Request: fold
Amino acid sequence: MNAKSSAGASPAPVLAGEAPTLPTGATPLIRLQGITKTYGQGQAEFQALRGVDLTVDSGEFVAVMGPSGSGKSTVMNILGCLDVPSSGAYQFFGTHVERLSRPQRALLRRHYLGFVFQGFNLLARTSAQENVELPLLYRGESAAARHAAARAALAQVGLEGRERNTPAELSGGQQQRVAIARAIVTRPSVLLADEPTGNLDSTTSHEIMDLIAQLNRELGITVLMVTHEQEMAAYARRVVLFKDGLVESDFSPPPPGEGPGERERLLRTPLASIPSPPAPLMKPLPFGIPGGEGSFEVVGATSREGAA
Ligand SMILES: Nc1ncnc2c1ncn2[C@@H]1O[C@H](COP(=O)(O)OP(=O)(O)O)[C@@H](O)[C@H]1O
Ligand SMILES: [Mg+2]
Reply:
């Protein structure tokens, strides 16, 4: 199948069951090349990113670590189209994001990217259901589609029956679950999480990490997550370490417990008991890229109906 086969097609309706198809070629989901970011001017000028190169493939779960001030949030904001780099190239499934207009970047954000922050960032005095519906409202979805998708997303994060609760009526962990539901209700290809467990106790942090790992594993959502905690980074299969605005190291730690014994155990495990990853869906991007590489489609998010 050709990655450009449905160029110009209208955007996929929320939760529509499209035919699954696999990524074509070797186009990575995310490619950053020589990304710099300078804040301020003159005396106050500060270079937060000094030439970041990073490639992330569809389906990866990446932990971003590094000291405070090393540029982790800056790079997440650029990846999430919340901010633009000062120089360098950002390609999202082959399309140069830095060549997109502001409205086009907003579209890319609304259709492909989901965010989770340390502080949850929910609207107060607004029900869980309405918080989760918000991204669909921005996208102009009908009320019926919004209600159904938000209920499914809340069920997906284990909050069935909490739809009417406001943030004040929910625990920290439950509030973060609402935020995760809001992030995945649009079926994003990528979940960007900036210290998602930073405000949570250890037990709740592990519950949230289990949920994020499940979204990665079962829905095929690519995850980039900033964390200070080694224990939380252990959920990822790759750790990218930032230092002074640069990627200092990039490695894949062996899974916990892996060794000769673990290998034996895995070899003895019947294949049928190992869940296979879901086939990713292609979603057409709702605009063509003038001067770019044509319209493109992105792989990663899968339909949630089956899992909800
Ligand atoms: N809007 C801004 N204006 C000026 N400096 C900023 C701004 N945002 C971040 N910085 C600076 O850029 C550096 C990197 O910040 P950040 O990406 O938030 O680091 P991290 O998330 O790794 O702690 C820090 O020194 C920070 O003070
Ligand atoms: Mg930060």
Remarks:
- The chain has eight helices and twelve strands.
- The two ends are 28 Å apart (CA to CA).
- Confidence is low (pLDDT under 50) at residues 1-23, 269-308.
- The CA atoms of residues 164 and 217 lie 29 Å apart.
